[in-house]
Amino acid sequence: MDYVPKSIGDPIRNEDAKELSKSETKYIGIDLGTTYSCVAVLENDQLVSIPCDNGQTTIPSIVGYCEDAILVGSIAASVGIQSENMLHDSKRLIGWEFLYDLPNANPELWSFKVDTKDNSAGYILNKRQENEKFVKPEEVSAEILKILKTTAETYLKKEVAAVITVPAQFSDKQRDATKRAADLAGLKLIHILEEPIASALAYNQKMELEENSKLLIVDFGGGTLDITIIETIDRFLKVKALTGDQHLGGQDIDDRIMKYVISEHLKKSPGHNFRDPRTLRLLRTACRKRKEALANTNSVNIMISPNNQDDTPINVRLTQEKLNELCNDIFAKITDIVDRAINMADLKKEDINYVVILFSKFKK
Asked: Which N-terminal residues, if any, form the signal peptide (predicted)?
């Protein structure tokens, strides 16, 4: 059932979403994220997040390829899988034909190997080994979708069909690749829904916005930024502006922190091997977690033990002030895109009644 607009100005009704919840088929919503993914269902007109990983409502968007099994989420991150076969960022690679035109890519910070094959960017497992294998991003996304599908069906005790959210700036190729991921997962897909539109529906479901209200949604995910302005008219939500940057997200901040930690540590230990995949994986995890901790403190220490006995332990202090300095241009770009959306909607800042800010486990 296509109840979401493809273009600015088309109306959206919350009643359409409610009708889905009354169907005999159990419909679920899936946020297939760059860093984390989750699944939810509408029950008694309330959006309910389904626990899916050790009681958590999100799972890390990580897939580990072992010799005899494929692991997804926290378990993939916790076991001793060869780091080069621990894959993430499938949402950033999906639908791209070439690596050289991938914006904001920092392959030197990736613990996995990438290449292109058959007009698709993808991953290389077991590079230069007899069992070398090319894996497309949609195949990685499919493994995440399989887990979310199984989790939802176990929780609901029924077969499910899904709405999957994607960034508003996703191209047709990226949307088609996401659809292929659903097919590979054996998941019935009823619609691809823009992430900020999903946020607007959920917010209006909860708050019952007043007539002629104007809502600014800033959706800063792990790998993408969507800015949307929506107006309420006759119980409809009308999209006034839709813009963003599909290659600007929390992981770009992680990359800045990683580069800073590497630079600071090399001043003390010039010979440290930062090309080691395990070291890069551990460093990325540590940088992301300490970044999140900075929301509640003025400074943190980023520490990891060396993988090589010849390397020294990493211990670099990061302050909120330094983080702002490292990422000042990123924050300025977000502000510029917000201003662009307001101009696109032919509005002034004071015309906005509500602001919804969605971050992927990151707060400035």
From this structure: none
Go through the domains of the chain in sequence order and give each one's CATH number.
69-140 (no CATH), 251-324 (3.90.640.10)
Residue 92 has pLDDT above 90, yes or no: no
Is a pLDDT exceeding 90 seen at residue 351? yes
Residue 306 CA to residue 280 CA, distance in Å, equals 11
Q: Which two tokens stand for residue 72?
A: 């997804």
79 versus 57: the higher-pLDDT residue is: 57
CA atoms within 13 A on the CB side of 144: 31
Q: Are 248 and 330 in contact, with CB atoms under 8 Å apart?
A: yes
DSSP 244-259: EETT-SHHHHHHHHHH
- Annotated active-site positions, please? 31, 91, 195, 219
Q: What is the pTM of this model?
A: 0.81
Instruction: Dump pLDDT digits (tens) for 246-300.
Output: 889 998 999 999 999 999 999 998 888 888 888 888 899 999 999 999 989 999 9
Mean pLDDT to the nearest integer, 151-174:
93
**Degrees to nearest 5, angle at CA 166 with 347 and 330:** 60
Sequence-ordered list of residues with C-beta below 8 angstroms from that of 361, at least 6 positions apart, any chain? 35, 36, 250, 288, 292
Neighbours of 6 (CB within 10 A): 8
Separation CA 255–CA 360 (nearest Å): 15
The CA-based angle 173-177-179, given to 5 degrees, is 120
Cα distances from 317 to residues 254, 290, 329, in angstroms, run: 15, 10, 21
Q: Amino acid identity of 119?
A: N
The more confident residue out of 210 and 359 is 210
pLDDT class of 99 with cuts at 50, 70, 90: low
- How far apart are the C-alpha atoms of 247 and 224, rounded to whole Å? 5
Half-sphere exposure of 29 (CA within 13 A, CB side): 24
Rounded Cα distance between 140 and 153, Å, is 21
SS3 breakdown of the chain: % helix, strand, coil, rounded to 5? 35, 30, 35
